[in-house]
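Below is how a single chain appears once it has passed through the pipeline. First comes the sequence as given, then the structure the pipeline wrote out for it. We keep one example in the README because the format questions we get most often are answered faster by looking than by reading.
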Amino acid sequence: MLVKANTKTFSLFYMRKTPIDKILIDPLSRFINKSTTGGVVLFLSAVVALILANSPLKDAYHHFWQHEFALSFDTFVVSNNLHHWVNDGLMAIFFFVVGLELKREMIAGELSRPKNAILPLMAALGGMIFPAAIYLIFNHDSAAVGGWGIPMATDIAFALGILYLLGDRVPVSLKVFLTALAIADDLGAVLVIALFYTSDIDTTSLIVGAVFLIVLLAANRLGVRAPVFYGIIGIGGLWIAFLFSGVHATIAGVLAAFTIPADSKVRDKIYVEKMNSLIDEYDKLETRIKRLKTPQQQHVLEQVRIYSKAALTPLQRLEHSMHSLVSFFVMPVFALANAGVTFSGDFWANITSNVSVGIICGLVIGKFIGVVGFTKLMVKLKIASLPSDLTWKHIYGVAFLAGIGFTMSLFITELAFKTNAAEFILEAKMGVFAASTIGGLIGYFLLKNIKPKA
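Resulting structure:
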């Protein structure tokens, strides 16, 4: 136990509940912390965007995202429309959290143990290669060839949201497998964006960005642990430098995340000893003055706060604190800005175009072939083995869920096709919506109907 147990020890179980806690705070907290909530909010945002884009308000909707917004200081000016700020700015926050998750998984998660990581890693690799190849079969000789990266992505929020909707119907090891697969897929998407979806490189800006990155790495080694420092240097230096470098600015988010310290300032043993000492000290102090704490009690409680904060790693503190921001602001705003496709009278022509069909076949068929094929290959070669509570039907279901591209696929669509390729963007987004719906439904019902192993 971390602290001594006695009847006077403070416990959350005995917290006094106010009416506002019972009516608003607790229900809202339960809603936010549910594993499916992020996916639900993201889905609703996409639906709202689609409704607005196909309503009498469609012109106002599209015009809204074209409003210019600028950041300036003296002669330094960064100006873009809201749509670009969402995709280059807000999505950098999303990729920062992705980077935090990747680092955590590589240090102490599913990607830290080669024996456990090899299966989802190879499944993710297969799930990127085959969709891209299938897309190129349909579009290798067209101007839309650059869209090959669109069907490679998996939307971790939607895929895991659907899996968690099934509750106890699916084994925990399957959730772990899909999580590791989706995180590895995110890493692949980051590399694809960095290597293939960049504009002309500005060497000077890239060098400046590298200098800021070195400063962040040095700060980590020197023991700087204040998140505000990494925020100022990461955003004010690294992100802005990448914004002008030609390498997509969201990559700065991932690089900055990897510089965040992943060790605690206070070792567990020392923390336990200090907490026990502080609890004993607090227990011996005189009681509070009416409803207020005494200065001595305040001092002890402040020490508890300081040591508890120091016992957590900055990496985990940031990941935890930013989860709600990303799930309930960044991703919904991204969906509102990018999911609003206005369907024209040529709906059938658009959905059956080479771009759309290539994406649908890539996400639904390519993902399935790649994930299942590479998983079976690893098992066949005895390089890895399926967890004992999984069957191949579970892998089939997850392979279809991996075909939910949505957020990442829409993001790469904007990178692959510039504004002068509006027709390709429309066709691609329609393909992403169709494929994500098909993959999600097949995966859900396939997993729902699997009987638990005896």
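The longest helix spans residues 82-108.

See the next section for the split statistics.
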